[in-house]
TrEMBL record:
Species of the source: Bipolaris oryzae ATCC 44560
GO cellular component entries: nucleus
Annotated GO biological process: positive regulation of transcription by RNA polymerase II
Record protein name field: Zn(2)-C6 fungal-type domain-containing protein
Subcellular location: Nucleus
GO molecular function: DNA-binding transcription factor activity, RNA polymerase II-specific; transcription cis-regulatory region binding; zinc ion binding
InterPro entries given in the database record: Fun_TF, Zn2-C6_fun-type_DNA-bd_sf, Zn2Cys6_DnaBD
Annotated stretches, region: Disordered: 57-78
Main location group: nucleus
Pfam families documented for this protein: Fungal_trans_2, Zn_clus
Length: 598
């Protein structure tokens, strides 16, 4: 600061506004009087220029215009040889060459494995077409497209996390498997990681969470699983197979959410064609285990609380999880879920009372009863699940809802009731054997069962109309299968003593069953229901040729892909072990509880 002649305090520098306009400032404080007289706002005498707001549309500076109208300069780079054109990228001061060695532009990261096939196809399409002016350009484009397709395949199949893990651990064989090439695979994969980090390619893994998995599972069910059942439901439409509305997801339990994901992923994995990439299966398996564990934790929380232990939602959640366990490739302890479900239903008064109190649970309970009734046929006689109600009328109870059971099996009502009665007789005969108290009435009941099964007429049962031949074939299949199940299972308990006539009858029924199933497997509408008849044919086929056994095994594998479930594969594994043992008999085959219905 300084003093004027009149003793006023003045600034030692001009204000910013006068300096901008190149005027002589009077340097008065606190503001310049010259600016005030001119009607301008003085910007002060600070060392730094103050910020000023610029109104919208105003321009504070413009580029200088050229005095002449000369055209802009064009800069041309002198081309160099391919050997001198080394690709480099600086990332934190480390060049690509230092990171993975010397590489050139023709050393692709993702080798165009399918390039030759694409090029051959291109030249075939060019036959008879006038020569193009720049064929090298087309060839180069085809090669780059093949590289891009290969990169897309790598990321879709393996994912970025897997690629970075292989590079970090230096797994040469894994890198060669990913790139489908043994030409410096680890070095080229390392280069790919460098490019991803250098250009900061975002990782979108955070977008995939459990919520998105649930929504995708619902979409997969509606778009593929339900669509397949609807397409094959021409014989008998199933009213329980409906569109799953995504807008009600928030009303369901987390256990149902996670179980839905597992069921959809299981279907996707098992529906893959033979020879599909195993990497897809392994990636989805880890997801299945994750969501299965989450579903188990959620179920445990609901069962631990008195308020939700026997609720409708808990019963539905357990049933869905039980169906998931039956689809599990490993032989899990699915019976523990059945026993837990049975205890909860008994707390609600039994199946019949629960159907009366909660009609909306009837479709779920129908599946539960169907699983148990057919699982008992593939279980030891001494290890049956007792679903008899308090008044002992379970057969009548199931008969009342058989219209809902029928679309899942296409088994005639009369033969399905005989299956239930055979199971009850097996249980009674097994208990008598443990007590060394054979009851002659059991043998009489067994002969009555066989007589009623043989008296069944597929011709009378088949519905007249354009699908008569299909219904007739289904009636013949189930008549032969139920007859074999009755004779072989009761013969294992010595209720039916072995005889030449019984052996001849079994052989004839086996021939009918095999020939009929061969025809049914050619029609997807009937093939979906052939798992249990094929399992019965496999038990009877222990004395048949290796070609027949191979056909049964291959047919079960095809059914696994058609149904999108592992149940046919588990049936095949059980039959192969049984054939290898060489010990015939129903209980010799099913020495533990199995279920091949889902």
């Amino acid at each position: 600061m300084g003093l004027s002649e009149k003793g006023e305090t003045k600034a030692t520098r001009q204000c910013w506004e006068c300096s901008k306009r190149r005027l002589v400032c009077d340097c008065t404080l606190p503001h310049c009087r010259k600016c005030q007289k001119a009607g301008r706002q003085c910007s002060g005498y600070d060392d730094t220029k103050p910020l000023q707001w610029v109104q919208t549309g105003m321009v504070t500076s413009r580029r200088r215009k050229k005095k002449d109208n000369s055209p802009p300069k064009v800069y041309v780079a002198t081309p160099t040889s391919s050997q001198d054109r080394q690709i480099s990228c600086q990332d934190g001061g480390i060049s690509e060459q230092e990171f993975y060695g010397r590489m050139y532009e023709n050393d692709y990261i993702c080798e165009p494995v399918d390039y030759e096939d694409a090029l051959t196809s291109f030249y075939q399409k060019q036959e008879g077409v006038p020569k193009v002016s720049a064929p090298e350009l087309h060839v180069s484009a085809i090669k780059m497209t093949a590289c891009a397709n290969e990169a897309a395949r790598i990321f879709k199949t393996w994912g970025r996390a897997k690629i970075e893990d292989v590079v970090e651990k230096g797994l040469h064989d894994e890198a060669a498997k990913i790139l489908r090439s043994k030409r410096d695979p680890l070095r080229r994969l390392k280069r790919l990681v460098v490019v991803l980090h250098k250009y900061e390619v975002p990782n979108y893994a955070y977008l995939a969470n459990e919520t998105s998995d649930v929504v995708q599972a619902v979409q997969y069910y509606n778009g593929r699983i339900r669509a397949q059942y609807k397409a094959y439901g021409e014989l008998v439409p199933n009213p329980a197979i409906v569109v799953f509305p995504p807008q009600v997801l928030h009303l369901l339990t987390p256990a149902i959410h996670h179980t839905l994901v597992c069921i959809s992923l299981n279907h996707f994995v098992h529906a893959q064609p033979s020879g599909a990439d195993r990497a897809i299966t392994s990636m989805n398996r880890s997801k299945i285990y994750h969501h299965r564990g989450a579903a188990l934790r959620s179920l445990s929380e609901y069962i631990a609380q008195d308020k939700t232990r026997c609720s409708d939602m808990t019963i539905t959640s357990i049933l869905m999880f039980m169906c998931l366990e039956l689809q599990n490739p490993s032989f899990t302890d699915w019976r523990s879920h059945v026993n837990g479900m049975k205890r909860l239903i008994d707390l609600r008064g039994g199946p019949k009372q629960l159907m009366k109190d909660a009609p909306h649970l009837v479709p779920s309970l129908v599946i539960y009863l169907l699983i148990i009734s057919l699982a008992n046929t593939c279980s030891p006689s001494w290890d049956q699940v007792d679903i008899t109600s308090a008044n002992g009328t379970i057969i009548e109870d199931l008969s009342s809802v058989y219209d809902l059971i029928f679309p899942y099996t296409l088994c005639p009502r009369e033969l399905y009731i005989e299956i239930l009665q055979i199971g009850q007789l097996r249980s009674k005969a097994s208990a008598a054997m443990l007590l060394y108290d054979a009851d002659p009435a059991h043998s009489l009941e067994a002969h009555d069962l066989l007589a009623r099964i043989d008296a069944f007429s597929p011709e009378d049962w088949a519905q007249a109309g354009p699908l008569y031949s299909e219904w007739l074939l289904l009636g013949q299949i189930y008549q032969a299968a139920v007859s074999l199940y009755c004779s072989m299972s009761l013969q294992s308990l010595t209720v039916l003593p072995p005889s030449m006539s019984l052996q001849k009858a079994q052989e004839e029924k086996g021939n009918v069953l095999l020939s009929s199933v061969r025809i049914a497997l050619q029609d997807p509408r009937m093939a979906r229901h052939m798992v249990w008849p094929l399992a019965v044919a496999g038990v009877e086929g222990i004395h048949r040729s290796e070609a027949t056994k191979d056909w049964i095994e291959a047919s079960l594998g095809d059914l696994s892909r058609l149904l999108g479930t592992s149940c046919p594969l588990k049936a095949s594994a059980v039959l192969k072990r049984y054939w290898k043992s060489g010990v015939p008999g129903w209980d010799s085959c099913f020495d533990r509880a199995y279920a091949f219905i889902i």
